[in-house]
Amino acid sequence: MIKNHFTISLRNLFKRKGYTALNILGLTIGITCCLLIFQYVSRERSFDTFQKNSSRIVRIRLDQYKQGKLLWQSATSYPAFGPLMKRDYPEVENYCRLIDDELLLSNDAKNVKFAEKKGYYADPSSIDMLGIRLTGGTATTALNAPDKMIISESMARKYFGTTDAVGKILVSRSAPGFVDDPNKPYQSFLVTGVFKDYPSNSHLIIDYLVSYETLRKVLKAGGDKQDSANTAIGWYDFYVYLQLKPGTNLSAFQAKMSAFADKYINNAKPWAKANNIQDRLYLIPFHDIHLYSNYNQEAEVNGSGSAVNFMFLIALTILGIAWINYINLSTARSVERAREVGVRKVLGAARQNLVAQFMLENIILNLTAIVIASIAVYILTSWFNGLMGQAIVKSFSMTGRYWLIFSGIFILGTLLSGIYPAFVLSGYQPVAVLKGAFKNTSGGLILRKGLIVLQFSISVILIAGTIIVYQQVTFMRKQKLGVDINQTLVLNGVQTVTDSVYWSTLQPFKADLLKNPGIKGMSISTNVMGQEIYWTNSYQSLDHKELGASTLYRLGIDYDFIPQFQMKLLAGRNFSKDFPTDKNAAIINDQALKQFGFSSAQNAIGKKISSGDTLTVIGVVQSFHHMGLQKPIDPQLITLRLDAHDAYSVKLQTKDLQGTIAAVKAAWSKYFPNDPFSYFFLDDEFNAQYQADQRFGEMFTIFSLLAILIACFGLVGLSAYNILQRTKEVGIRKVLGASVRNVVFILSKDFLALVIVSFVIATPIAWFIMHSWLQDYAFRIDISWWIFGIAGIMAFVIALSTLSFQAIKAALANPVKSLRSE
Global pTM? Predict the structure, then answer.
């Protein structure tokens, strides 16, 4: 019986090659897209699940409010939180803290040195909590004392040529002011552990960890008498993780954070009371950080939960459209197959046998499609991962959970898409069919029309979404920033030159550069555009003390920074060598102007602001985008810092860039021989903030086009069968004088009316979805009505183009052939 069903199924599928090809092609594209997207979603949702207790680890988020208004939200918080929470709450089993520790490290024996940026000062508990797997050293002692560090296997090979690095020494020359002996301009670290390279599917990139006791030692050497690394509440640059005891209810524990904040901050700190500051604490699960935490001072650029959810829905949509095609085409062919059903029933076939027959055809189609899709996925995986910024993943890989999800969806979809056509076709009455009295039921017609409306509603939504995503990305890239970042080469600053000789070394270096005709200028600063500012202080206006203090983001610059970047002064002046008092002066942006309560830019000039030290406002600059347009413009305080050594911005002429860079490198080697020469172009670095949005836009566009293509496959099939059923009608109309245009209109109008209905349904849905998506951007486009008009017109044109070919072919056919049998 099974063999007989299988043989008949193959015969039927080969007999109707066009129908079979359309279904297999649509299903293959749908399954391929679904698998590729599921792989992407699987990886994005696998972040930070490799730690053995990841489900019990949370990170503290710090939100600060002033007079009930949100000032900022930070992924970092205060170092005192860890020990205080472990002491106060039995739910806390352990904690660890991390704070950035960028080092210029060297192995002097091999004359190897590199500037390292992906490391942290860390508590000893970090090794276990963060899932660091030591291959050398002992976890309990590796970070339990000052001047100890653990490094990754890749880092060990880079410095020592082997992973057997425990017991060896690395030297840092990046913090000469923070050592026990002021005459020793370096810090030695004993390598006490080597660990497996930290997994790439983590919100942290960890190449090395330095013991937390080293930080305490460094701070003490710098004059810290309060053990700030353990007790500070106010210094919020620490990532604080808590490991909760098994069975802890996270929601119940979160409810206790308000009382904790009141006890130690809001009701305890004079600065909080005086300025009406309220701190609020939130706990974010460890495995949610990558997708659902995009706040200030994130360790790395995180993903987007909404983008991942969007892509997951698109995957299901594409596959769903392919199955809808099968249902539509199968039921539309009911007249064609009705006689077959009638004959088989007369010959004794039971309904269940016919259902099994039609279900087997459906299963063969889906299995054929999944085999072809598997080959396509194998070929496309490398390209797709590169498109998604996951080039590190070379082969197809998906977690067991998503294999189960896909398998369940595929099996369920295969069954559901096959059951309805199978029961419709097997339910025909043989007497009516064989008498020629059979015709399509109104119920089946309504279903097919409903499915077409659904398909093209989705198409309109995808077209409108594609236009809006493209507009938003283009808007961010082309919006004026308020500063000129073009033709700017940024050198990562020196770290080995001591403060006493820094200025006397920097000035000759700058003078040498300015002699080069390819260089227009150079300035120094603590940050450049595109780099998040971590240096903050709370200042208040002495003229408006009733407003309290406001958190300002500080930027230290030299005399040339403002003119070089063409920042616009609204009032006052730039820093000048003619004013020695400028070391106690400040320039603010117009966002800070509002915070201080000044009535105008001119009114702010000469006013005093205080935060322990008192500064005089000498200028107000127009607000500029220091970060990408995803983020709001922060209130900024700009001060004169001639000792800044974080970034050197060199303005270049457009000609002979490579020759100019070579000249800069030669000058660097002359004046700073102990520092590695590294640079980047500022516009490239700034625009890198939009890469994730661009990738999302490209992927959204590609899969939207594929979804629309699959919908067109279904429309082609449906229109072909519609025309086939109306062949004699077309012949009669032509004999009676109907023109080709009239025939094409008659054959197409019903389908085109459905597209118009789809547009009406899709427009408000598309607006709601894309309006919600845009809320993630501080600066965003307005959704214009014409976007939906274009989406509707495009859907109409696509449908018309799809229908026209077959309609015109039918209209041009000789009516004699279609009426011959009459």
Answer: 0.84
